[in-house]
Amino acid sequence: KVFGRFRKILSTKQANKFTPLDIMFYTYILKSKRDKQFYTGYTDDLKERLKLHNAGKVMSTKNRLPVELVYYEACLNQQDATHREKYLKTAWGKRYVKSRLKNYLTGLKR
């Protein structure tokens, strides 16, 4: 599966000039402001994907709008991002995220 931004880079004349940092994949977690539940996914264009979620164009979140980005990680390749997504959906992964977001989830300010 070729993602949007990656496809655009490959279709331009500058395709041979891109660096690995030009093609990053992101594992991300959204929190629904409606039901306070989390959604985990991955993409190669985080800003565009967040716009799609909030526009109601993603089936998994369209009935849970609005959503906000609460966490993301950058990966150098799609396989790492999908493995990380799967991990973050496990019980251990959810514990890890809750630990990382402890201050955010409890409303504490620095």
Provide structural commentary.
With 110 residues, this protein is an alpha+beta fold. It is 38% helix and 21% strand. The protein has helices spanning 4-10, 46-54, 78-88, 91-100, 102-106, and strands spanning 25-32, 38-43, 67-75. The protein has a 3-stranded antiparallel beta sheet. The protein is globular, with a radius of gyration of 15 Å. The mean pLDDT is 85.
Task: Write the SSE topology.
Elements: H1 4-10, E1 25-32, E2 38-43, H2 46-54, E3 67-75, H3 78-88, H4 91-100, H5 102-106
Antiparallel strand pairs: 1-2, 1-3
H/E series, N to C? Answer: HEEHEHHH
User: Low-confidence parts, pLDDT < 50 over ≥5 residues?
Assistant: none
Strand order of the largest sheet: 2-1-3
Counting H and I runs of at least 4 residues, what is the number of helices? Answer: 5
β-strand number: 3
Structural class given helices, strands, pairing? Answer: alpha+beta
Distance between the termini: 41 Å
Q: Roughly how many Å is the radius of gyration?
A: 15 Å
Strand content: 15-25%
Shape type: globular
Major sheet details: 3 strands, antiparallel
Mean pLDDT: 85
Helicity range of the residues? 25-40%
